[in-house]
Amino acid sequence: MRILLVNNSNMGGVEYYRMMMPNHILSLNNPEFEFTTVEGEILRHDELTKTSERVYNPATKQTEVVMTSEKVSTDDYLKQFDVIHFCRQIDIYGQTTIVDRLNRLGIPFGLDLDDYWHLPEYHIIYEDYKIYNTPQAVIDSIKAAHFVTCTTPIIAREIEQYNKNVFVIENGIDTNQESWQPDFVRKERLRFGFFQGSTHLEDIKHCAQGVVELYKNKKYKDKFQVILMGFMARPDEPSPFIGYEWALTDKLKVLNEPYQAYLKRCVFEGSDQYFNEPYVRVWQTEVDNWGLTYNLADISVIPLLNNRFNRSKSELKLIEAGVKGKACIVSDTQPYKLLANDSNSFLAKKPIDFYNQMKYCINNPNAVEDKAMKLREDVLAKYTLDKLTDKRKELYLTYKK
Description:
Blueprint lengths: L1 E6 L5 H17 L4 E6 L7 E2 L2 E7 L4 E7 L3 E2 H6 L3 E5 L9 H9 L3 E5 L12 H6 L2 H11 L2 E4 L2 H7 L6 E3 L21 E5 L6 H16 L7 E8 L8 H9 L8 H9 L13 E5 L15 E4 L5 H4 L4 H9 L2 E5 L14 E3 L2 H13 L1 H16 L4 H15 L2
Helix pairs in contact: 1-14, 7-8, 7-12, 11-13
């Protein structure tokens, strides 16, 4: 069975977790399934040339990039696939090129969504969504799709308003991958890690005052570190990660002046010499190696404002931490309450709770270990790609042409 996965961008975190890795494991466990990945833009033309594909090679058990230079009609190219699965959107900017083509060819196609399509006004790409009317494009994609996959029952209920053929396939981790092997090494100082992507500035601000208060409490001096993972910024250019850094350090004021000067330069070179500072910046890494960043922390701090957009997200950050054997301080809200509870996480109902929970963790290292092990147990029981493969397999077989 041949499956085409269609992304609207280069391989990022969403494409990796929702398209690439789940189907990689599906092919690994079921060799009769083959998948190819392309970018959606090429399917809007009548003829393809120099197509870049990602194809799973059963012989090497790796996904390889293959360049095709031979010209072929788009119709003929698509006819070789049994199911087509799109990430986030199908057609954009009000076009119906791809939808019309697939319906004419009689090829079944689905859509995967991991986020709600109406963004809060503070969101970093809110204005772009408004300019390009992206929410309507997503809704049109939902209506057009033969089926829709998503991450949780919460976002499924939003999707069902437009398409009843909704299937929840949770996010999962490939626990056989080297970067996702558990890490139980602990340091003398308790390391609080922030693993958020680039769209969480308001969420970070939600707990940042508590972090700053912890810096100012002399009782805990030298007993903890704050580590910002996945940092990405260029000198003299705006970046949400600069906003994260300033929020978590009171505009760098809790740090010494030489370190402040270094951080303001915004360069990777020389970062090693500052790795023992109370705040540490860890630069962005390849998505394949993201799991290794969890080796640098003991606790993942996961603040999330309680609103409709955020409630439609997934439990992914808890899942990542659990696989790696790390504890979590997490907002007591959905979607995290689908997984987090008092036995496996430190719950924060309001901003001050992040401060109180961080203090508690420093004073009670055994409780940190206990929560981390319980979270790992709960995650491994449900959120590994091996366990989720049958859901995806059954779905594709149901819609096979």
